[in-house]
Design a protein that fits this description.
The protein is mostly helical. The chain folds into two domains: 57 residues, Orthogonal Bundle (Multidrug-efflux Transporter Regulator, Chain: A, Domain 2), CATH 1.10.1660.10; 48 residues, no CATH class. It is 64% helix and 5% strand. A three-stranded antiparallel beta sheet has the order 1-3-2. It is elongated.
């Protein structure tokens, strides 16, 4: 049996993270010593390593819990993992597209500002912002 500090250190986590995972049902509740300290079995380490790796891939604790719940029910969760990773990849692609659009807007605003300055056109406050078309959401 391992204390929360030892299990956290061996898993490369903070004790607070281990307690959070326990509170959210990602790992089984720890047994308590007579003094009330948490005591984890060695089998908690592979789960904690898995949680850490899944988070490194960008999966949320809710998503990780779904994966672990499937595995605990005896099912193979790889299809779910693939689906979740595909969703995350699609979201990243959307973000990249949005950032590229924002970059183009900023570059255009900067170019218009240079042109306005070259013509000696003052803005009421700042011609960079005033000359940029507002996007509607």
């Amino acid at each position: 049996m391992l204390t929360v500090g030892r299990v956290a250190k061996q898993a490369g986590l903070s004790p607070k993270a281990v307690r959070l995972y326990e509170a959210n049902g990602l790992i089984d509740p720890a047994e308590r010593t007579a003094a009330g300290y948490r005591s984890y079995p060695e089998k908690a380490l592979p789960e904690l390593h898995f949680i850490r790796q899944a988070q490194a891939l960008g999966l949320s604790l809710k998503e990780i819990k779904r994966i672990l719940d499937l595995q605990r029910q005896g099912a193979q969760p790889c299809d779910l993992v693939t689906s979740l990773l595909d969703e995350h990849l699609a979201e990243i692609d959307r973000r990249i597209k949005d950032l590229q659009t924002l970059r183009e807007t900023l570059k255009s605003a900067r170019d218009r500002a240079d042109q306005a300055a070259d013509r000696g056109e003052p803005g009421v406050i700042c011609h960079i912002i005033e000359a940029t078309p507002a996007e509607t959401a």
